[in-house]
Amino acid sequence: MKRAHKITTTEMHTGGEPVRIVESGYPPIPGATILDKRRYVLAELDHLRTALMHEPRGHVDMYGVIPVEPDLPEADLAALFMHNSGYSTMCGHAVIALGRYAVDRGLVPKAAPETRVVIQCPCGPVAVRVEVSEGNAGAVCFESVPAFAHSLDLKVEVEGYGSVLCDVAYGGAFYAVADAGRFGLEVPGSAVADLVRAADALSAAVRERVELVHPDAGDLGYLYGSVLTDGQDDAPLSANVCVFADSQVDRSPTGSGVTARMAIGHARGQVYPGEVRTFESVTGSTMTGRVVAESTVGDLAAVTVEVCGRAYYTGAASFIIEPDDPFRHGFLVR
Prior knowledge:
This protein is α+β, with helices and mostly antiparallel strands. It has helices spanning 34-44, 46-53, 92-104, 192-209, 255-267, and strands at residues 5-14, 17-24, 64-68, 77-82, 87-88, 114-121, 124-131, 140-143, 148-158, 162-170, 174-179, 223-229, 237-244, 248-249, 276-280, 286-297, 300-309, 311-321.
């Protein structure tokens, strides 16, 4: 008789967006590079992703982290990110949680007033600063990989909405970014279901219209989702909602989305190095963004963006996967 499979996790959230960190129960993940490891889990271990992300252990908007061995000498740890339909290349809210987790778990030596951690993500190494303080959770800031605007004022025909102008930018993953007002919607204000419908339609239109290529790796060249904004692109505070993967709604402002929006703002001359912008999510949680350096990616002008937020613990879990359970690998109902 086969024994039940056990997976243990630590549960956190950043801005309301869940972060389920796997601590045990995954087999060793081979691969010379982190992108090799990402391909391996997709090909060989995807049933564990669906078991943890989907019902009855998760839900359609669950998000998770699989720690893996880094292949970069400067990295303190490495992570794969998983969601309702696969594995992303970057996740800012998860990096913020992992930064605090790494310090609290002693994965890096703790130093006051802040501890530095390098987390290798599929998109590349991310430098993290964790504020060390007594009692309350300190802020966590990360400098992501170089971000850039791919297309500005791109006109696409969006089914059900007509011709829409949007921008496409890379912040560790590619996003289409558009003012929700172009769909007759408001952020905040409109029903989330309506925002999801519009964002999904925009993503479909951009995928049909634009072939995305990242100069560094073919695995990075795909549209992850769409960010609908309040149109306040040059204001100190702007609200947005990110819809990614299979209609998954980010409860946080989306760290990689904030990075992409800052890259767009810089490309438009709306934000300059050192300026701080605040971004608000559908839960009212916030992250800040700041351009800290200018660079290039291939032939494209790029920026390094610092994103800051806070993460909190919600619990710990020990999940059981029984071999005769017909729903052992999860399901979704919606």
